[in-house]
Amino acid sequence: MHWYILGAGAIGRLWACLFDQGSVGSTLLLRNTAALARWQLSNRIEWHESDLIRHCTPDVETPDSKGPIRHLLVTTKAYDTLTALQAIQPRLLPGCEIVLLQNGMGQQQAALELLPECNIWAATTTAGAWCEPPDRLHCISRGETLIGPLSASTPALPSGWSRLPISLSDCTDIVPVLWRKLAINCAINPLTAIEHCRNGALLDSPRRMALLQEVCHEVEQVAKAAGMTLFEIPLLQQVEAVAHATGDNLSSMLQDIRHGRQTEIEQITGFLCRQAHEFGIETPYNSALLQQVRALTMARESQDD
Ligand code: PAF
User: Rounded to the nearest whole angstrom, what is the distance from the C-alpha of residue 289 to the centroid of ligand 1?
Assistant: First the structure.
């Protein structure tokens, strides 16, 4: 058994280390020859966790490699999923196991439609990790990972995953889990990106709290129309708890904006607004956030021109 990892960012590299600890082989699929040249500076991951430093040496491959793939973990940004899967599609064997471990929604359905012959799972994780070039990986927490099959004929767990040294729960119905993550992301990510603040700072001002409340109310309405139960407590309270617990963090969307990268707004708030439109629900607050984050990205792009 050997897992290929598409998306060699912090989570992809963390999973390479976890596979290694679980005695499962893995190969990181690098984006291009420049990424391969950077990798070759050290040929390994220096994995920092608590006071421990370990080394992990997964195999690496360039995009022009041709061998068949039976097990594929996708940790790319949500917006890259389809293009990345299309590029690798000729290498996927029938019945190939694919795990999508990403933020956002919409790409899971697109993957199912593109690859009906494959067994596909979706997963979410609260693991926290970041990369420090050239080869350091800092694992803040292994967190909790929830995984579930996206179609009835797919088994509960992919091959080898029970060996991973993490807290892993298999869910028969992963879609509501994805919605819960989406709901939290809809509230925290765009607001922190627009306000340029840490997660905890959303709770500091009455104006931001009032906005959070409106955003959460709309998300709850759309989730309800989609037949999803979110949390046992109101979404706003859940969001407050997450913003408090991750108070010092910069949300992934704010980090993307700061680094001039594309954000996952279309797979987070964009997905919510598309769903709202289908159900005929007005979402003025979320729609405004969607426009504002799009504008931030465009302003950034025109600065770069
Ligand atoms: O995307 C993120 O940054 C995280 O999912 C969350 C929960 C907003 C905390 O930072």
Answer: 16
Does ligand 1 come within 6 angstroms of the Cβ of 242? yes
What type of residue is 22? G
Nearest residue (CA) to ligand 1, atom 3:
251
The Cα–Cα gap between 263 and 258 comes to 10
Residue pair 237/203 in contact (Cβ under 8 Å)? The answer is no
Length of the chain (residues): 305
CA distance 247 to 258: 18
Check if the beta carbon of residue 103 is closer than 8 Å to that of residue 78.
yes
| Nearest atom (ligand 1) to Cα of 264 | 1
224 is catalytic: no
Nearest residue by C-alpha to atom 4 in ligand 1: 251
Instruction: Tell me which of 66, 77, 181, 224 is the catalytic residue.
Output: 181
* pLDDT by residue, tens only, the chain of 305 residues: 999 999 999 999 999 999 999 999 999 999 999 999 999 999 999 999 999 999 999 999 987 899 999 999 999 999 999 999 999 999 999 999 999 999 999 999 999 999 999 999 999 999 999 999 989 999 999 999 999 999 999 999 999 999 999 999 999 999 999 999 999 999 999 999 999 999 999 999 999 999 999 999 999 999 999 999 999 999 999 999 999 999 999 999 999 999 999 999 999 999 999 999 999 999 999 999 999 999 998 887 777 55
How many CA atoms lie less than 13 Å away from 223 in the CB half-sphere? 25
Return the number of other C-beta atoms located less than 10 Å from residue 299's C-beta.
11
For residue 242, report the distance from its CA to the centre of ligand 1, in Å: 8
Q: What angle do CA 98, 263, 250 make, to 5 degrees?
A: 100
The residue nearest atom 6 of ligand 1, judged by CA position, is 251
Interval between CA 189 and ligand 1 midpoint (Å): 7
Query: Could you give the angle at which helices 81-88 and 107-114 cross, rounded to 10 degrees?
Result: 20
